[in-house]
Predict the structure.
Amino acid sequence: MKKTITLMVLAILFFACKSKSGTTSTTVKNEPVASTKLDRSSQVAIKGDWVITSVTYPGSDYIKVSSFQIADSKCFVGSTWHFISNNNKGSMALTKSDCPAFSSPIVWSVNKEGQFVLKIVDAGEKAKKVRDGYVLRVANQTETSFQLVDIINVGGQNKEVTYQFEKTN
């Protein structure tokens, strides 16, 4: 019985993959991705300084998720994010001890479908040269908080990873 449970947990860990989505107006798995029509009101509401207060997903006690191909998702708790809405730029930084130190400029937008499009840009690199990015869903947006929801594949099933943002200023 213990061997079966151990094998199941190992299989889940092995197949837990972070989805990586393109940020152009193409299709992924026959679904439209990242419309170019922007939702200016959502973008203005996100403007400012934010911190991720929690990262939640089913099976988080057993499964490690690598967020944005940077670090374990739990390392993003306490990370700081700065969003500038008039030019869709900003920055993010991981600040948690026992996690890799990381900071980077970002380019972001929210489209009319409620999708948050994110590109993590190396210093000195232009966003148009960055081909890879992430498409997440904006949820539960208020003046002081919002969520970004990512879809990952765990053992052939789609699961949601929810990043809870709280305004700091």
The radius of gyration is 16 Å. Helices lie at 2-15, 40-46.
